[in-house]
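Dear all,

This email documents one entry for the complex benchmark we are building for the journal club exercise. For each entry we list the sequence lines for every component of the assembly. Then comes the predicted three-dimensional structure of the complex as a token string, followed by one or two observations. Please use this as the template for your own entries, and keep the labels exactly as they appear.
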Amino acid sequence: MPDPTRRRLALGAAAFALAACTGSGSGRHVNVYSGRHYDSDLRLYAAFKAKTGIEVRTLPANGDQLLERLRVEGDQTEADLIVTADAGNLYRLQESGLLQPVVTPALEAAVPARLHEPHGYWWGFSKRVRVIAYRKGEIDPAEITSMDDLADPSRRGQICARSSSNVYNLSLLAARIERLGAANARAWAAGVKANFARDPQGGDIEQIRAIAAGECKLAITNHYYYLRLATSPDPADKAVAAQVGLIFPDQNGAGVHVNISGAGVSKFAQRKAEAIALLEFLVSDEAQRMLAPLNEEYPIRPDIAPTPALAALGSFKEEDIPLEALGRRQAEAAQIYEAVGWR
Amino acid sequence: MAIELPPRQDAPVPLWTSAVIGDDRVSRESSLLAWPMKADIVSIAALVAAVLVSAPALAVFLLALAPHGAESELAGGLMRDGVIGTLLLMLIGGGGAIACGAAAAWLVTLCRFPGRGVFEWLLVAPLAAPSYVLAYAYSSLTWAGGPIAFPITGFWGAAFVYSLGLYPYVYLAARAAFASQSVCALEAARTLGARPGALIWRVALPLARPGIVAGGALALMEIAADYGAAQHFGVTTMSTAIFRAWYGHGAPHAALQISALLLAAALFFLLIERRARGRRSYAGGSSRWRPLPRYQLRSFPALGAALFCGLLVLLGALLPLAWLARLALLRSADDIASLGQPLLNSLLLAGVGAAVTLVLAALIAVAARRGDRIGRAGVLAAGMGYAAPGAVIALGALSLFALARQAHWIGGFGGAVALATLFWTYAARFSAAGAQSIDAGLSRLATGVDASARTLGAGPLRRLIAIDLPIAAPSAAAAALIVFVEILKELPATLILRPFDFDTLAVKAYAYASDERLIQSAAPALAIFLAGLAPILFLSRRLSRARAGAR
């Protein structure tokens, strides 16, 4: 039986919570929509507050869904800065007219030209590279020098891959379309697909695990997933990493595929000054030095030394294409994957 | 308190009569006769509820139909694969869930075997685990180099996870249906010489059919709507196709088209189910409640029954729970302490959301039972929302807000508006779980009672309070429980509609899991599990004791 007292209590609690959520605190703040949801970012924001007194309020969610929400909110949005974990999303935000160009001396000095949008619609603040993982003892790393090698018929049944709907795989193929054209990209995707040891499933870490378990010998992964296993508190993870090595492909060719995390100022930002301050902070010495140890991402700035774990992976040549191509070619990449049956 | 119904010493309408006079016919007549007078308060409230609950899904339809560029070509191939994948998963995973749930319900209500009393309430435990959490837990537990090297991967992995995670929906509904069966029907059948086998197949099962169908429908719609587990196991379903089109191809319109197809399929499915059920009546022949006669199982059958129930609980709850706990313990205590606020937020959303959803669902279900067309349409509309992924319903709700904003009815999408939209989305998404359950409960109301009350001069509101609600109370309590836990587990709508700095446990678990930090996602996932488990087991115990005359 419903108990009136209890019901009143519940209603009261709800009203209180509503009030708590909607009441705005005192002091300066900045609202961030974020497609990144790493604990490391919260520490960055805390450091930003300590430095500037500006509080960062976050709404971490899926990048594509945030885009839809921003579209609906239009000029009424409360978002000031929009952060994503992929260049493709930044491009889509820009295309949808949800960002505004911002150029400041600090940003220009810190971010290499290739890693931001030319007009300043968005700026990269960390890098990740997409590399090849291999099973030690069964693959001679000298034999695999390029992503092309994964499509070679001699690798039948050796490759594990994650779904093509994953944005890292989409960006990888988008970059290839940009460099070598759609026909080449299609042939490569079909060749890799023909070499699958199993249907695509799981994330990058699952692929590395599958290598350790002997289900396959080669996989494509972002570098930090491997480092995360290697530095995991779980001994089983460390054992997995011990059986797997990384190859930075295409060092004699186009260079390894690079993607960024980046941010842009909302077109309708009500706190533009604060948003720019946060953006500048993300590429500052302090934040760049914090970022790498927290998530094992590469700093965007060449003058910041990488962490020991990153340094151990060595230096490498990076792919040199405009990053907006990752967004521009993304739908085409998805269609190619679909057409060759890489699900 | 419930008012006492007029005592009926013996069944006023023999069982065969009520079976012949289908309540469908009765209600259709009454609705035709009474149509001009339908504007009573309950009907109007039901109309409002139906509109609220169906608006986001209808918005998705309208958006999908709106003329748009050349994206539809892409939707075709994806849609075909998605339809096949979803149907196969419904067949294997859904079939598994229905078989396990119905069998377990039958064993614990109508048989006696060692451990029965414990299993009776423990069997609902997997309800607390979101499918995506089960999927993550099982893959990290059973990969080839893991502690249990047994390949739970791909299609069969998804089917396994759905069978285990979703059987409690069927179990709960079927148990209520078995437990509320009139002893007389069973005794009459036995007196007439029916053997135990015939008793199950010809009396107990058919009488429990509304419960099994209602629970099974929920399980099947869960499969249709689920994204996390299917995506993780790499199965292309309608749901994963929607997000592949949306995120991968950057084609939200194609995503909406696939969503509209999914909604239409759900509607079609519900209509068929309704037609099939509509011709029969399941009202019990007697209001006398006596302890159910239970078969004493001995030796092998008893062992088999205990083993079967034990395995369901072990695989559906205990094993993944223990594994998550082990992973969570690898983290520092700080991490676990930081889950306090998300836990409160989750409980708040689930509590208020369940209350809002249940009120709307109850109005719709009661109106539908009275033969009210609005109510019946409302049940169907609610069903659509349940079969659609939360993100799609959220998109529908968001687009309605875009319209409201263009019309200058509202300003921004600030904290209160965001929360209100979130509750609305929950209602649109989960009121089917409430309405189905309450409807199944009301289906036990003997056909004549409502008419008798009307003859005796009881108004619509009085009949609602004095008859419908008390009768539906046990199933409404079960429904509230299901909706509460559903919202606790709900991810995509919460993710996109919540206000700033408002994390829930599911959001936390997702944030870590989507970044492949399984160890860190273990603590919030475990917290969802435990937070859902407590109310589930509590209510399950109460329900298993609540049967009049059971003790």
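Observations: Chain B touches chain A through 71 residues (CB under 8 Å). Residues 1-37 of chain B have pLDDT under 50 and may be disordered.
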